Amino acid sequence: MSTIGIIANPASGKDIRRLVSHATVIDNNEKVNIIERIILGAQNFGVDKIYIMPDSYMMGYKVQDKLKLSEELKVEIEVLDMKIKASPKDTEKAAQMMEDKKIGCVVVLGGDGTNRLAAKYLKTVPLIGVSTGTNNAYPKMLEGTTVGIAAAVVASKGYDTNLSCRKDKIIEIYKNGEFIDICLMDAVISNEQYIGSKAIWDLDNIKKIIVSNCHPASIGFSAIVGVNKHIDERDDFGAVLNLNSGENKFLAPVSAGKVAELSSGDLEIIQLNQSIDWEAKFKGIIAADGEREIVFNIGDKFKFKITRGGPIHVDVRKTMEAAVAEGFFKRK
Questions:
Q1: How far apart, in Å, are the Cα atoms of 205 and each of 21, 243, 310, 329?
Q2: Which fold would CATH assign to domain 170-307?
Q3: Residue 13 binned pLDDT confidence (cut-offs 50, 70, 90)
């Protein structure tokens, strides 16, 4: 049986960046619409069942009701049987359940943070990240119909996914010798001392940025490194940059509609499976993929390691191209 999963974060696209920049608000009605298009795309290409994470907005149930009412639903939909906490724990639980069920492909609607949470548990199930915001570097802005078709192609297991999927790099974070978390794109060290609204927007407080990938066309912390050096997903290295110190002056797109003039030291390359050590000389926090997550004190010792231990990431365009070559769209 061909199956796919959908994890949609009801809180994404609404954080404090909408107040401190020109970021777009993506409401839950639009997410419902995107989920509908994913389902309608997937059900025409052999998917038998779709699992959806439950949430406080009841997006899965609303999609099911709407598509039944319009008589467009051909596939079985199951909202996962789990107790919701209206917190990031829901994404983690849903991802773990989908991994355990060995679902063919999981689509994650959200930002860098949502995809990071899902990636921690999706070890063998391929992932498609769909951005529902504007400050995202990992998930992409994609049309739901195409995403549904690509997920169906991957879930069909009818061709070699090595042509269109890759094992992503991640940043593994160790605190005082203990593994504590991962980042998909960037880890940011700041002298801010509270988790608060999670998103970081005061650039003056940032001391160091570690990246696995970076590109000048992205937005946010990885772009700060990306305007100094482009590091592709296929490159077997990452980088670290000390910010607000040094003589290098440059401009970078730091959030939606905001370009900042910054200063840094020289960029340092981190090879795959190599780590950098850092000991805290001040109290502060570490932001994982843009969200403040880890509080530290003076004397805490950290290790940041670049590995290929990330999720199996589906390239939607390459998947569709491979599907054409395999005759996936042809009908008898």
A1: 17, 9, 29, 52
A2: Tumour Suppressor Smad4 (2.60.200)
A3: low
